[in-house]
Design brief:
By secondary structure, this protein is mostly helical. It has one domain. The chain is 72% helix and 0% strand.
Length: 275
C-alpha cells in the first residue's frame, strides 16, 4: 500500500468534511452480523457454522451474475435524484418473507431477486451522490458495494481501514474490468457474457462474491433459525438492504470527493478523521 500523504493541503468545504466524516462512521462501523445479533441474540453464532459453504458460493455467484447483467444492460438514470430507499426496503422485505417462510430451500430463488433489488437501490444512491449511471465505472462501482461491510479477518492490520482494504482487494480487477469493456457497447458486453467470453469481468464478480458471501451467510444463518418465520425473514431482509444502502451512501460520498480532490488525498484525510 502506498504511503499516506500529509493532509494539510486538502481544502474541503465544511459540508464536504462533514460528508466524509459521516462516510467513515458508516463504513467503519460493525457490519450486518452485529445488527442481526442485536435482533436475534446468540443463536446466529451457532447457525452460521451449519451453512453449506459450497452451495452458498454457487448461489452467491449466480446472484451477482444476475446483478452484473442488470448493471451492464438496464441501469438507467432516474428523473429524481432522491434515492427510493423505503420503496426498495418494502420490496426486499417481501422477498425476505418468502425466504423466512420456506427457509433454506428458497435461497436460490430469493437471493438473486433481493440482490437485484438492492443493486437498483444502490444505483439510486450513486445518482444522488452526483454519479452518472451511464458511466461504466459507476455501474461497476455499484457492484463493488456488495464487497463492503463484511467482517474483517483477524489477521488484518488493526490500523488499516476496513473500507479501503476491501477496495484494495478489488482494485486490480476493477481496473482490468473497466479496460476490458471500455471499447464495447452494453449489448456487446451482455452477448459476450452469455457466451462466457468475458473472463476478466467474471473474475471481478468472483472477487466480490468472496466477500458478499460472508454477509449472505450471516443473513442465511439468521433465516435458518427455527421459528423465525415469514415476519422474521422480512425483518432480516430489511436489515440486509439497509446495510448495503448505508455502505452505498458512504462509498459514493468518498468517490464523489475523490473525483474532486484526488483519491490519495481523500484517503489520507479519511484516515486522519476520528470516529
Amino acid at each position: 500500500m502506498y504511503e499516506i500523504e500529509p493532509v494539510t493541503d486538502i481544502q474541503l468545504t465544511t459540508a464536504e468534511l462533514n460528508d466524509l466524516q459521516r462516510a467513515k462512521q458508516i463504513l467503519e462501523n460493525p457490519g450486518f452480523a452485529m445488527k442481526v445479533a442485536g435482533y436475534l441474540g446468540k443463536p446466529i453464532e451457532f447457525a452460521i457454522d451449519k451453512i453449506d459453504s459450497e452451495t452458498l458460493n454457487q448461489v452467491t455467484t449466480k446472484a451477482l451474475g444476475k446483478a452484473l447483467d442488470v448493471a451492464i444492460g438496464s441501469l438507467k438514470e432516474e428523473s429524481s435524484i432522491v434515492p427510493s430507499n423505503l420503496k426498495h426496503k418494502f420490496m426486499v422485505g417481501g422477498s425476505g418473507a418468502v425466504g423466512g417462510f420456506f427457509g433454506l430451500a428458497s435461497l436460490a430463488i430469493e437471493l438473486p431477486v433481493s440482490t437485484t433489488i438492492m443493486l437498483r437501490s444502490i444505483a439510486d444512491i450513486a445518482q444522488s451522490q452526483e454519479h452518472t449511471l451511464s458511466d461504466m465505472e459507476t455501474r461497476l462501482a455499484c457492484l463493488e458495494v456488495f464487497s463492503l461491510g463484511s467482517s474483517k479477518n483477524s489477521d488484518d492490520d488493526a490500523s488499516e481501514s476496513a473500507y479501503f482494504a476491501a477496495r484494495a482487494t478489488l482494485a486490480f480487477e476493477m481496473k482490468a474490468a473497466l479496460n476490458s469493456v471500455s471499447h464495447m457497447s452494453s449489448k456487446a458486453i451482455q452477448d459476450a457474457l452469455s457466451r462466457g467470453q468475458m473472463p476478466i469481468l467474471i473474475k471481478f464478480i468472483n472477487t466480490i462474491a468472496s466477500r458478499f458471501g460472508i454477509v449472505v451467510s450471516e443473513k442465511l444463518a439468521a433465516q435458518s433459525i427455527p421459528l423465525i418465520g415469514a415476519a422474521g425473514g422480512a425483518a432480516i431482509n430489511v436489515m440486509f438492504i439497509d446495510h448495503f444502502q448505508e455502505m452505498a451512501e458512504g462509498h459514493f460520498i468518498v468517490k464523489r470527493l475523490e473525483k474532486k480532490h484526488g483519491s490519495k488525498k481523500i484517503e489520507a484525510l479519511y484516515h486522519s478523521l476520528v470516529l
